[in-house]
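Exercise: predict the fold of this chain.
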Amino acid sequence: MSALKSPVEVLWTARYDYQPDWKLLKHDHEYFQLICFLSGSGQFALDHRDYPLSPGAVFLIKPNVRHGLTPTSLVKTLDVKFLVKDRGLLDSLASSVEMAIEKDMAIANLLEHIRREGEAGGVLYRQMCDALLVQILLHFLRLQNSPAPKPISLDTEGHFIADPVTQAAVDFVKQHYSEELGLGEIAKAAGKSDRYVRRRFEEFVGVSPMRYLLHYRIRKAQELILHSEHPLKEIADLVGFKTIHHFARAFHEVCGETPGSWRRRCHSGICKDVCINPEFSNTIWTVPSAGLKAS
């Protein structure tokens, strides 16, 4: 498997919480870094500019460019440090903008996937992390064009949907998953009968519309558990479950554990360095703000 080559190499990743009484000192390094801000407020210094933080802000930090962070509230981030080996990709990143805003959390979800791959350390985990990073960088480069061209539809499980009826049903679920939905509402949105939509959905997606809805709700719940401080009861309501008990049963059915257990396991990895390249050593630049003022 050593013959597998990638245009990039992931060095390190982490999910960090920056407290408002701490600061990330300005520094630079010889590799690329991409940082995604999930929530919080403050200022991110990059080169000679200061950017106000907003959820969904993604920054590409190029080699030898100074950067730092001054939070004014709890700031949650996901980021990755990496090398680029492909000349074409290197040129594209070198000439790209340094900041973009994403609204669908595609980059954040891919970053979290890299972190989990790194923590698990399974077969070909480094190659998997590299492949995920390529997707992230392509997402970032595409965000530069505003308005971005509508991408080819992709369902939750990653299969291209060639059937317009199934696509209409999927789009409706993604837009209305937090509401009370049944097969009748989904079929009506797709303009066909319940039976027809169910048959086409199972043919093109592999599961029934209602099963897809359940999995999509659990996926959105995982995003909220991971990237917010909402109580589980509130998360259940936000993703379309009538009761916390129904939510807990569905979550356990899909994920094999309770929402509370999943949250504790995810939070145990916060502020934990995950070195994808075992030879990489990460330098800590975070210091208490009070100490800076005193000095």
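Check your answer against the key: The chain has two domains: 8-149+271-290, 164-256.
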